[in-house]
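Issue: ligand-bound run for iron/sulfur cluster - logging full I/O for the record.

Environment: standard queue, default settings, no custom constraints.

Inputs:
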Amino acid sequence: MKVDSASELQPVTDTGVALAAQLRAHTRGEVMFDAAARGRYATDASIYQVTPVGVFVPADEADVRTALQIARELKVPVLPRGAGSSQCGQTVGACLVIDCSKHLRRVITLDAPHRTVRVQPGIVLDELNARLKAHGLWFPVDVSTSAQATLGGMAGNNSCGSRSIAYGNMVHNVSGVHLRLADGDALHAGPLAHLTGRAATAAHVVRTLAETHCIEIDAMWPRVMRRVGGYNLDIFRPRSERPYTADGSVNLAHLFVGAEGTLGFIEALDLHLTALPRGKVLGVVNFASFHRAMDSARHIVKLKPTAVELVDRTMIELARANPAFKSVIESALIGAPEAILLVEFSGDDRTALRMQLRKLGELMGDLGLPHCVVEMADEAPQKALWEVRKAGLNIMMSLKGDGKPVSFIEDCAVPLEHLAEYTAALTDVFTRHGTRGTWYAHASVGTLHVRPILDMRRDGATKMRAIAEEASALVRKFKGAYSGEHGDGLCRGEWIRWQFGPKLSEAFRAIKQHLDPDNLFCPHRIVDPPRMDDASLFRFAPDYRTIALKPVFDWSAWNVQNDPATEAISAPGTGDDATLGFAKAVEMCNNNGHCRKFDAGTMCPSYRVTRDEQHLTRGRANTLRLAVSGQLGPDALTGDAVHDALALCVGCKGCKRDCPTGVDMARMKFEVQAQRHARFGATWHDRVIGRVPDYARWASRLPWLFNLRNQVPALAALGERWLGVSAQRRLPTWQRDTAGRRSRELGLVTREALLRSHAAGQKTAVLWCDTFNEHFEPHNAVAALRVLKAAGYAVHLARADGGGAPCCGRTHLAVGDVERARAKARALHAALLPFAERGIAIIGLEPSCLLTLRDEHLVMGMGDSARTIASQALLFEEFIVREARAGRFAPAWRRPAQRLLVHGHCHQKAFGLMGDVVAALQLLPGADVSVIDSSCCGMAGSFGYEAAHREVSMRMAELSLLPAVRAAGDAIIVADGTSCRHQIADGAQRQALHVAQVLADHLAAAAAI
Ligand SMILES: Cc1cc2nc3c(=O)[nH]c(=O)nc-3n(C[C@H](O)[C@H](O)[C@H](O)COP(=O)(O)OP(=O)(O)OC[C@H]3O[C@@H](n4cnc5c(N)ncnc54)[C@H](O)[C@@H]3O)c2cc1C
Ligand code: SF4
Ligand code: SF4
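Outputs:
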């Protein structure tokens, strides 16, 4: 096996050094020219990687103008970028990348009565629509990446949403583009009649070109709505199925939509808005054959739906296999269909909408498919099903192994009457090349997404070329568009000449030369593009290698290969990876950018506060990939760049659940910490923080001494200076009355007694009290005991060999001390195994500790005992919900007088356990339970206590948690995480309670303890 790594990223050139210096001197923006930062901006959601000259994050528009001027003077090309979610390599290039997404995201003016808005380019679609909702308006180009895509990027790509059949693409919804040209001039593009200055001249040039080439336009221009390739020369000779303007007039702004940043920098956009429809209904049409689904689309669109979206059998099965989507997809199925079409109607009259659904059923009956429509009239199930459809691509991308579904012909558009024939023929092409594709998306407009599985490190490029050639022949045969949604970029640039012919390609060159004669903006895009299969541009080129690494965790589940024709995965450990699977786990990040989100879910709290690519799951995964492939130089995995990228990762595991490909950055951070520990050893801070469980027993015997730090400011100041623990934080206070020391008084039974009770068929459980609930908050353990005893359980408190609370080793893992962590885990396993082997539940109170048993312990080489223990390890709420459902848990309760407001611990969310927390609280009669829509609390173990992180920690908490707690009135705040409770106390001066405490407080008969 060859284990030499890929070559290092190109160093910064002298020009780059000068550029960086000038940017630093003359702007307020962030200037990033180090290898890791440039590496993070070298990729987007495509297969390509090109290292930029440098990265600039402007603070405002003035910064942009200054940067353009400096770049022009130094002759460095410029590439504007939004979320970088482009699939064709639009946002990678050897340029100065200007990231608009951090600061250029204002709504400049909103004119609700006239339904127009002017925005800066970096605003994200969902953020804009959230603001418009109050006015009953929305911007209806609803791309699947609506939570990430910026309006500038959407305009750059001429993006298209699922509902384009009703609302059109970007080009149909942009009314003005305000551009900064290469020479520094402004160009305001809008309706032709009002143009002046540079805009009027440009319009004249483009009009002349369109007139000169009218014959070629008529002959070569695809007559489909979904055509986004090349420049929109057809503004002066309309060819789109859907006219660009309602009245047929010309708007120069449309030339710049789809220009992919090649003609100028968009400083602002004027957008048409649409009234939010009051109602929507969804008919899910189930088909026994894929061909029938495709053939029916042309009939269904005659009913004037707002969307017709395909989900094929593979996607259905993948969704079924995903716990988050299973019940949702199943609610839409009749039997086992080969494909479903999601047919949506929207409008203000609900009776009319129901009528439409009826008509859909009748139409399908007329087509010989009676009773195949599942009707969804309510909003919630519709929304849930749309989420499954939107997650389609991401679900597909979770395939492990080097073969990945590759985007290159994934949005060819053909007229609807040929859709069935086209998809059948393309499926044959895939089969001939030993691969297959999963079909989904926009059946209404003839743009079906499909990605064949290719291994770009091996024969992928050859197959890509062959498939592209055959697909293009089909597109030509059916008079379609090769580039129908995702733009040209590096991948489709060479097909522009194929699609439009040499004369129109020269016309495109003339447009570029008129507006950007010195090629300042995004060279080699649209005009003079490279070959799509130029391996020097690939992220995973055939010479891609990784360093050799002996990881401390078991990553073999990722060390596999797949069969592109069947998607079957080889056995764990057979993937020939020099890092034994760690690199392949890292490489699961396909850069789709889904982690750049601010809406639901946990991922990614640090990005939510900093908006820095470095502090994003994607940025971290890219940094790790560059490090393990040697592109950041020797020993980079344990070097500063990786350390810095991981510094604000709070290990919340939000990505483990929310990332569509399951990138588990928390575990990766543990791995890196362990590698660093092996290289550099432990710091004082690591020793004091990591070894809390080691000295906890003694500290809780002398609580007055150890708690002095909270009372004597000088000690807190010393702690900050020597150990980096923030003096502004109160530390948890040591308690003498631990559950262990009160075991007799609490009525706990011995190990032997518990085993006897279990053998006698009595209700039994083991309570495992983690270090924190044992020594800082023993009242939670007491509360849990009261509840369990009230329900008739005999309870044994797990003890380590020499007495004391056994620890899971998590604090050691956090500082990379895996050996100590393993020793701790072994001692814990020894204490728990006799019970787990007999099927006795092991109940934990602290989510991060208990769930370590079901997560990290399984990959630490601890053998079968780890699996046995994991199978019995339950959080308190999981246990009682399970028992209550089985009819074994029914103490008498009091009705809570206040409402219950829950903040979920990140690991509870990551393991999908929030339902159990709510269900446990709902055991209380009449309980009014709601969950705060919050990400990480920001405390995250020791993270928020550290002086270096306190501020960012508080900002995480202020995003949603603390405001919700402050607004909660007299509600009881429920939080199972020790650090979450401390953060709430620190930030909102409210005492949050463990779910066990809440339940204990509402037992009808006060238990003896
Ligand atoms: C999982 C997934 C699903 C997707 N689904 C869809 C979909 O449903 N519909 C769809 O159309 N696309 C889709 N895409 C593609 C992509 O998300 C969209 O094209 C999106 O609109 C790009 O937005 P962005 O902010 O990421 O732009 P970027 O990728 O950052 O940039 C896009 C282009 O705009 C240019 N640009 C950005 N800002 C400026 C500026 N200020 N001035 C000039 N040019 C600028 C860039 O140079 C680039 O050429 C999908 C991608 C993924 C990964
Ligand atoms: S980390 Fe996950 S969500 Fe983020 S870009 Fe990578 S694959 Fe997408
Ligand atoms: S573990 Fe949490 S903070 Fe770290 S990358 Fe994942 S989502 Fe972000």
